[in-house]
Write a structure and sequence with these properties.
TIM Barrel, 5-stranded antiparallel sheet, 13 helices, about 25% strand, 2 domains, alpha/beta, Enolase-like, domain 1
Length: about 375
């Protein structure tokens, strides 16, 4: 049984090692919302709201998630007795949307539960592949030379797949030059909804580059146009923003809106929902992978655990702490092997020690709900 007595909200500010640019804009610093759940025995679990600073990737952002957790979701969860962490989603179900806010609480409860039964979270979730393959996501750069340098650095570090952000001013010629420079590396382009069906001919031309996938080329809430585009091009389309639930995944596969799905814990609402999507895709023989949202070590640890599920067959955006942070908020920091993999920890829960003293130094606001 699980019964939450208190929920603590903490916002921290973490500067990135290097700016990260997508079609949404450029980010230099992350405002990160952490959630700590405590049960009646004093045991704790940690989660993270992975939304951005503004409602660009989706309608949630740091301040909306703070209000949703503090004013609505936390009071719904506190004091409710459930059989397992997998039922926390149902406790919050009558609140529409706000999946990233919900996931911050839900994932923290999974961490708490795994710690209470003294097993690693990845095993508690049903993970099978302790060693996961890792890729990296490289934002839009100021020059092609700068992009080349970034790619070479990541290849030298052993990463198995390179994802580059693309946008109407940074697409065909950039991919062409990357192919000419680096040959047949595993390469994909992430558009973050920057295109429309008017760009079909462009995507047909880019078929020649043999990319692993185009990620979310069309509107964030679209499936129908993606299905039309997929019929016109050979390169697999990977859905990201369009899939927010198991039902979305099922419908997307039924209409052929894509051939791959990127699963992000925050976007889908937590581990229980992610597990359902994994089961749907595995049954349909559709590969999935774990996407990233510039998480701190806490969110990254949850991504590692999720990525051990059998359906996660493609390298995800789960990379080393040092790619983003001068100093992370967990120890040990997440590291990648020379083979471009991360090995899930054997310690209970998320498997990393939360550096509470550092979090308190970085905190810009806190709230306790009990």
């Amino acid at each position: 049984m699980l019964k939450i007595k208190q929920i603590e909200l903490i916002e921290i500010n973490l500067p990135l090692v290097h700016f990260f640019e997508t079609s949404f804009g450029r980010t230099y610093e992350r405002r990160i919302l952490l959630v700590r759940v405590i049960d009646e025995t004093g045991a704790e679990g940690w989660g993270e709201a992975t939304c951005g600073e503004t409602p660009s990737y989706c309608e949630e952002w740091t301040d909306s998630a703070w209000a949703a957790v503090e004013k609505i979701l936390a009071p719904m969860v506190i004091g409710k007795e459930v059989e397992s962490a997998g039922q926390i989603w149902d406790v919050m179900k009558r609140v529409r949307g706000n999946r990233m806010a919900k996931a911050s609480i839900e994932t923290a409860c999974w961490d708490l539960e795994a710690k209470k039964i003294n097993v690693p979270l990845w095993k508690h979730l049903g993970g099978e592949n302790r060693e996961i393959a890792c890729g990296v996501s490289i934002g839009i750069q100021d020059s092609i030379e700068q992009l080349f340098g970034k790619i070479q650095t990541e290849l030298d570090a052993g990463y198995r797949r390179i994802k580059i952000k693309i946008a109407p001013h940074w697409d065909y010629d950039v991919i062409r030059q990357v192919r000419e420079k680096f040959g047949d590396i595993l390469l994909m382009g992430d558009a973050n909804s920057a295109y429309t069906l008017d760009d079909v001919e462009l995507f047909k031309r880019m078929d020649a580059f043999g990319l692993m996938m185009f990620e979310q080329p069309l509107a964030h809430d679209d499936m129908l146009d993606h299905a039309r585009l997929q019929k016109e091009i050979k390169t697999p389309i990977c859905l990201d923003e369009s899939v927010r639930s198991p039902e979305d995944a099922r419908k997307a596969l039924e209409i052929g809106a894509g051939k791959i799905i990127n699963v992000k814990l925050g976007r889908v609402g937590g581990h229980a929902q992610a597990k359902q999507i994994e089961e749907i895709c595995r049954a349909a023989n559709i590969p999935i992978w774990c996407g990233g949202m510039l998480e701190s070590g806490i969110g990254r640890a949850h991504n590692i655990a999720m990525s051990t599920l059998a359906g996660f067959t493609l390298p995800g955006d789960v990379s080393a702490s040092k790619r983003y942070w001068h100093e992370d908020i967990i120890e040990p920091a997440v590291e990648v092997t020379r083979n471009g993999t991360i090995i899930a920890p054997e310690s209970a829960g998320i498997g990393f020690e939360v550096k509470r003293e550092r979090i308190d130094k970085l905190a810009v606001r806190k709230s306790e709900i009990s």
